Amino acid sequence: MSLVLHLQGALFDFTDYGDLVVLLRNSLIAGAVLGLVGGLVSTFVMARDLPFAVHGVSEMSFAGAAAALLFTGNVVAGSFVGAMIAAVAIGLLGMRARDYNSVLGVLMPFALGLGILFLALYKGRAANKFGLLTGQVVAIDQQSLATLVSTSFLVIVVLAVVWRPLMFASIDPEVATTTGVPVRVLTIVFMVMLGLTVAVSIQVIGALLMLALLCTPAAAAGQVTASPFWLPALSVIFGLTSMLGGTLVALGTTIPVSPFVTTGSFAIYLVCRLIRVTHDRGTSRARPHETSRSILTRTTDSMERP
Amino acid sequence: MSRALALSEAGLAFGERTLWSGMNLEVTRGEFIAVLGTNGAGKSSLLKVLLGLIPLSQGSAEVLGTPVRRGRRDVGYLPQHRTFAVDAPLRARDLVRFGVDGFRWGLGGNRRARARVDVLLESVGALGYAEARVGQLSGGEQQRLRIAQALASDPAVMLCDEPLQSLDVYHQRMVVELIDRYRRELGGSVLFVTHDINPVLSVVDRVLYILNGTFRLGTVDEVMTSEILSELYGAEIEVIRRGNRLIVVGADDQVHHASPDGYPS
Question: How many Cα atoms within 13 Å fall on the side-chain side of residue B45?
Answer without folding.
Answer: 22
